[in-house]
Amino acid sequence: MGRGRILASQSNWQCMRMDDSPSLLVTNGLVRTLWQDRPIAEAVLMNAGRVAWVGFNRDAPQADVTLDARGQVVLPGLIDAHTHLLWQALDRIHPDFGESAVSGISQLLEKLHAVALERNQDEWILARGLNEHRLREKRLPTREELDSASRGKPVVLKRVCGHAVVANSRALQLLGVEPSSADPPGGIIERHAGRPNGVLREAAAAIALRRIPLPPACEVIESMDAVARDYLACGVTGVTEAAVGFSSTFSDEWSIWETVRKTAGFPLRMAFMFRISPDEARSLELRPTAANLDWQANTLKFFADGTFSNLSAKVLEPYTSMHSCCRGLFIQSTDTLLHYMTTAASDGWGVAVHAIGDEAIDLLATQFKKIRTRYPRVALRVEHLAMPSAEALQLLKEVEASIVPQYAFLHELGDGFVRAIGVDRAEHVYPGRSLHDRSFTVAGSSDAPASSMSPFAGMAAAMDRATSTGRVLNAAERLRGHEALSMYTRGSARILGHEGCRGVLKPGAVADAVIVDADPCSASATALREAQISVTISRGQVAYKRA
Ligand SMILES: [Zn+2]
Q1: What spacing in Å lies between the alpha carbon of 149 and ligand 1's midpoint?
Q2: More reliable by pLDDT, 2 or 18
Q3: What burial class does residue 376 get, using C-beta atoms within 10 Å of its C-beta: 0-12 exposed, 13-18 middle, 19+ buried?
Q4: Confidence band, pLDDT 50/70/90 cuts, at residue 2
Q5: pTM surpassing 0.70?
Q6: How far, in Å, is the centroid of ligand 1 from the Cα of 100?
Q7: Complete edge-to-edge strand list for the sheet that includes strand 541-545
Q8: N or C: which terminus of the chain has fewer CB atoms within 10 Å of its end residue's CB?
Q9: CA 242 to ligand 1 center in whole angstroms
Q10: 76-86 pLDDT tens trace
Q11: What pLDDT is stored for residue 14 in this prediction?
């Protein structure tokens, strides 16, 4: 089971201890070092977990092991600044109701019925991947439809965005959701003719997800290890878990991560953002860690609003699809968000805030201004920043906020943005050039499973801004390849406080690198989407090699 596999990788890891690990020389590469003094090289020597030397083949020192890059591109190990690794691990355990599994409501119900047959009475059924836009009927299933296929067991279908679920009657009953129930703060209990229809959004969905027990820890950890290895296969050597406490309770999630840390051998460098209030952090006696290349937890994350696809991002003008008067929602009051951020800053945490809609971003920018005045050194980051006004960009630049956008959304969700907010506004979402020209620190990220985990997909989308049906969302906001690459290297390292040590191949930096057949600095976006990783090196050792 999971435990055995982790122990196996642990023993591997122990043979790779830095001090007695063999030195590794990569030769015959087009090495993009991201190091100003020597941006291009042919060879890199790694020793004791660090880059020891960078230069040309003819000058290369001896090493214990030599790896021929065969003319391919060598880049620093890529860093995903915002992802959900535990959520992806759970997705691999929970039944898949996504587009590859079901194409319409009747097929969805057949599948639900089959899953319900296998489950014990009263065992929760949590399924993932639900996306009404990919169903033939273009709508979510109703509570009654789920009732008809669930054999009386509590069912929660999680929408692909993670910000909404559909529950059946038994689940609503166990959650205490009744016709008279008021919406929880920051959440929506959707109704039809005055009766909850099973759709729970934002805080209401989070309440449901926290109620469902996690699978056994060993099973989750085995799945997390598999996700981590898939990251290595994409050239990623470090990630930030963007919201511990988003898929389940904070305590349950963090205790799994603590177990991962104790067993050692986890193949990625990890950073964490906690999705709890600073008051909860105090009561749990959590303190921000110092900067640490392998395990860093020094940021609290708050949500200003929801998402476009869930029609919950807070926008100034109504959504164009369905609910014509709907303008999304704030997850908490302005005062509460300011209190959270102020308390977090005073306790030494970095502050990250999810903000997507223009109204949410305007609010956040003014609040960041207040925080910055009181706490000149606090690290401020905006997650997503889909729809900023020029004024908000100006304010965010003044307070030196870092930005963590997900350009892969343009490709994978862009047509949905057009549906939700109309083409005029969709043209302006996820600006690239506007951030770059204002010299923001911009980190590369996937927000997986909300989009593909591959940084090359993210770079490609930042470069061509094409939706999956080929519509280009504002060519003027495109980035060039080297700028896109810089987000996943220098930008992500800087946002973690690891600049100069990660995201760069120069003597003294960590020995994390990727060998790939496409050069972000010269390849087309299409070629980058198809990039093949040959080798990923982590801590000076080959951590992934393509068969
Ligand atoms: Zn996220």
Answers
A1: 31
A2: 18
A3: exposed
A4: very low
A5: yes
A6: 22
A7: 40-41, 30-32, 73-76, 513-516, 533-538, 541-545
A8: C
A9: 6
A10: 999 999 999 99
A11: 32
